[in-house]
Translation initiation factor 1A
Amino acid sequence: MSDDSGRKDLRMPDDDEVFAVVTNMLGANRVKVRCMDGKERTARIPGKMQKRIWIREDDVVLVEPWDWQDEKADITWRYEKQDADQLREEGHITD
């Protein structure tokens, strides 16, 4: 079942989501993210994540850009450090 490489099946972005790296903590449940589509966005940490998931600078997250305001987004998922390293190795994330 498990192979030697230790590769995990990670959650991949849906059609409306993009990978992003947290670059700055802004406070008030907001962070600055650098998205893999080349844009800088202000991302919101939704209420259901605030208490359960700790988000820090340099974390790899999935964001869902807003339809009506492209420079803003909602964070939908945060990757663990080893998962983020795997995404970098597979070329999904460029630094």
The helical segments are 47-50, 81-89.
